[in-house]
């Protein structure tokens, strides 16, 4: 049976950036674009070139992608030609293969927001799209406020779509800009659009979650015949967010009637990385992942009710609509550590530690993880700290060095020339099998040298002299540093997760928790060195 | 025109308690029950009396409510009469006017989970419901796994509903227990149930959010004729949660076709308290409210895109599907480098600063925001820092005090008894109009005293003596602290956003950026004090 191809258009980097509190750097945009490409979306909308310095910088250095890279802009203004509109020119200058421009389709907005005639707006749409096509670009038209416009003046709203379609738009996208249209209306109006002569395979849907129906509205449009879906990772977006692709993709790939009717560019293998992709975005944004998120949330397959948990042990399909592995997630059964033990043995085996089923150390490790997660630790990404914890319970923990004390100072003052300077210094005393040694680091203020703060000072001091182990840690690099205030028991504590790499291609992460951010970071630094020494030291099992 | 009455059944205290990490005390249940009653729901399901000590305690002391108080339980087991089933007896002993019992309707579960015959299960349903009715209770039947059951064996699934309905159940509730049924299926199957002879005004709907469609599935059932809605506050519930009543209620009351077709027990005045009710639950659970929550989220009416913000100023209906006041929420026009002049003027006007369109200071402020966002600052939540930045460009910035220097130390060492202790201390010198003063804070280590780290030490020292301003900052509290590593130009920098509150009900946030986390935090602390002094000082314009 031939399946119908659905096109996935991601706007995390454009509409997603409209989320309150979200401000991607160009580097972060590159990282997200690569993840979207690996997932298998068809279009990546990168932003609005020319609208702000970050977007302009990103388009200059954008990564190569299999997905069609798309720049966003708006229809030309009235009273000038498309070729002479400098905003549109700025968008075209980004040299993307596709360009998506937004235009009005609701007569009220043409009047109130633009203050031009309905006829002028139609001309702006058709001439802008024609200009994109003449410039050799694939053109997409975001029909702003389409559903509200259709309800107010269906003839005019449809005329706007026709203007874009006839001028050569590859996709005409029905946007529920204000997010207030309910799924049943979206389905009915999308069907009318197709009846009016715009084929479904040229029709896209763009919804917002203002009534909690963004996903359902998208599905209703697909049911009616629309074949492009616009959405964002984790449902980022203006106000309540856009349709969540992380929810829609597994629904389309795994659930009937979609799974046997449609196909997308997302391969099954990429679907298995969905949970990781979703959490990666939260990491970049330093957001706490939503535990209850469909498919990818930490609680999405957590069975707390006693009746559910006991049935799950007999047969997981009793209380699961899909298998968690299909989206790279895992089942949690808080009442029974059966599932926990096999999970744990797998993780230990991945680290080269073999444990027998029923080994009492397994329960001790699970208890310790549970206790420490209550205290604020998180081991999902900090695998190296998890390995050290497991080794302690199994009595195969390393014992390379001990920290006797540290002291770190940060200071802001005026120097002799009256300039404000910020400086940090640290002193660390460690003992190894051949004695105790003290190291010192000071970030001396000088022209153009920034002070990297107390954690950096501590790291520089700690790694400068580990005696017999020194040669093995010389190639360690700190690659990322994440800080989150979280709940540890009844108190707020700071959780620090640090990523490291070395010259042998290893990458690892550790976690530390304390009310004192410096002490939390220090715990993660010490874990990282221990893990590195363990890996380099073949004599330690 | 007579509107059709919809019944609202809240299960926050029962299914909502199945949320991972949620464990209500009896007192918290009372507080939530009162809020639900004030909102105007028809039924409050309080829990499962006899299943755990908390639920039993709560039913003994439950508050008086206008809503029908409901106890939850399950159908009697096979091989005994309903009167002799001690689990059912435990539920009846709670003496609630209504009792809702869950029973199987999916043949696979009758076999796999219960291990009884299909006929025995039908008997368990009808005898249990008949027993509740004989005891003078209003009986509700939660048809577990109904949609999956209907798809597997429609005849049997419908027979289960009939068994409950004929035995006297006031409501037969179609439960999508695993959350995997899509809205179109829910609508179609609900219509079949009504065709089979169970009237819509005896039919309820209970959905879960495993595909992000719990709200849409509920609306689909209502469209098909179901007249009772089961859900929870903020969508709490097993796995991904239940249908969110906080989203459904305003949709039913404010949006067409629902608003003119149906009525509920929720008065317009109670709808205006919806945002507060939602946040109250988060407060009880010590959760950070979801900014993007439909209707009640802090971002639900935040207009970040420049094009949106300029239209909103002309007419809020251009980008809002309902008025925020209708649900007790407020409009926000945040500042960011996406914003234009009209956005900025609105923002300034909210702060009591009037600027003329075309004032060159407006461009300077926008440029400064853009530059500082490139450096790593973020102003859309840190409104207080934005105000100070704008005031500097407008030359109406405060000049209350200046920091001459600070120095902060964190130390980990062994004390005289060989215990590891972590301590922080800070010294800050500030100058005010009447001279210079130095303050000191040390977090002395003692039993059960945690060291809160260098930022806390700095804050304690800074706020301990501001000379002539001291009395005005005594009521400042630091309520949240967020840290992220971001790109500032070409270097990684640390951005710290700190939330504050005072005893006059004000809440404000500030931002600081530096490669040194302590210095970034310090900048935010200084901004926060300046903003607070500005608000308390009527003489400063």
UniProtKB/TrEMBL annotation, chains A, B:
GO terms for molecular function: (R)-citramalate synthase activity; 2-isopropylmalate synthase activity. It catalyses: pyruvate + acetyl-CoA + H2O = (3R)-citramalate + CoA + H(+). GO terms for biological process: isoleucine biosynthetic process; L-leucine biosynthetic process. The keyword Amino-acid biosynthesis applies. Residues 6-272 form the Pyruvate carboxyltransferase domain. CDD domains: DRE_TIM_LeuA3. The keyword Amino-acid biosynthesis applies. It is an enzyme of class 2 (transferase). Pathway: Amino-acid biosynthesis; L-isoleucine biosynthesis; 2-oxobutanoate from pyruvate: step 1/3. Pfam families: HCS_D2 (PF22617), HMGL-like (PF00682), LeuA_dimer (PF08502). Belongs to the alpha-IPM synthase/homocitrate synthase family. This is Citramalate synthase. It comes from Boseongicola aestuarii. The gene is leuA_1.
């Amino acid at each position: 049976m031939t399946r119908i191809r659905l096109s996935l258009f991601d706007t995390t980097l454009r509409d997603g950036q409209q989320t309150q509190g979200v401000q991607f750097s160009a580097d972060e945009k590159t990282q997200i674009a690569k993840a979207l490409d690996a997932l298998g979306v068809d279009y990546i909308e990168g932003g609005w070139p020319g609208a702000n310095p970050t977007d302009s910088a990103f388009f200059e250095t954008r990564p190569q992608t299999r997905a069609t890279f798309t720049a966003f802009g708006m229809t030309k203004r009235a009273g000038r030609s498309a070729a002479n509109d400098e905003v549109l020119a700025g968008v075209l200058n980004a040299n993307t293969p596709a360009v998506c421009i937004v235009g009005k389709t609701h007569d009220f907005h043409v009047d109130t927001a633009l203050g031009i005639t309905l006829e002028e707006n139609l001309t702006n749409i058709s001439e802008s799209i024609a200009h994109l096509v003449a410039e050799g670009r694939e053109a997409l038209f975001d029909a702003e406020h389409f559903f509200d416009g259709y309800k107010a003046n269906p003839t005019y709203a449809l005329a706007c779509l026709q203007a874009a379609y006839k001028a050569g738009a590859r996709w005409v996208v029905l946007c529920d800009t204000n997010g207030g249209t309910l799924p049943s209306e979206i389905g009915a109006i999308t069907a009318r659009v197709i009846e009016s002569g715009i084929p479904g395979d040229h029709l896209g849907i763009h919804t917002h979650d203002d009534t909690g129906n963004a996903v359902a509205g998208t599905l209703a449009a697909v049911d009616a015949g629309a074949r492009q879906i616009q959405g964002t990772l984790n449902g980022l977006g203006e106000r309540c967010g856009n349709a969540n692709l992380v929810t829609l993709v597994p629904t389309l790939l795994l659930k009937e009637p979609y799974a046997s009717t449609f196909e997308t560019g997302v391969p099954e293998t990429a679907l298995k990385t969905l949970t990781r992709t979703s959490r990666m975005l939260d990491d970049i944004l330093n957001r706490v992942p939503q535990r209850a998120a469909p498919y990818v949330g930490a609680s999405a397959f957590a069975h707390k009710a006693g009746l559910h948990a006991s049935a799950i042990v007999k047969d997981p399909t009793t209380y699961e609509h899909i298998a968690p592995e299909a989206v790279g997630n895992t089942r949690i059964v808080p009442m029974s550590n059966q599932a926990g033990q096999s999970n744990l043995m797998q993780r230990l085996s991945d680290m080269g530690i073999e444990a027998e089923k029923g080994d009492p150390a397994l329960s001790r490790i699970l208890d310790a993880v549970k206790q420490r997660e209550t205290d604020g630790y998180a081991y999902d990404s900090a695998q190296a700290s998890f390995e050290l914890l497991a080794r302690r319970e199994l009595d195969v923990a390393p014992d390379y060095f001990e920290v006797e004390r540290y002291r770190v100072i940060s200071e802001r003052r005026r120097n002799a020339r009256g300039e404000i300077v910020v400086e940090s210094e640290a002193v660390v005393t460690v003992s190894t099998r051949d004695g105790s040694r003290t190291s010192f680091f000071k970030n001396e203020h000088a022209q153009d040298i920034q002070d990297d703060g107390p954690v950096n000072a501590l790291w520089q001091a700690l790694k400068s002299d580990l005696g017999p182990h020194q040669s093995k840690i010389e190639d360690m690099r700190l690659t990322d540093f994440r800080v989150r205030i979280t709940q540890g028991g009844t108190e707020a504590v700071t959780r620090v997760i640090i990523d490291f790499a070395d010259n042998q291609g290893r990458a690892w992460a550790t976690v530390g928790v304390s009310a004192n951010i410096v002490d939390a970071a220090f715990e993660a630094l010490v874990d990282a060195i221990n893990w590195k020494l363990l890996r380099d030291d073949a004599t330690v099992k």
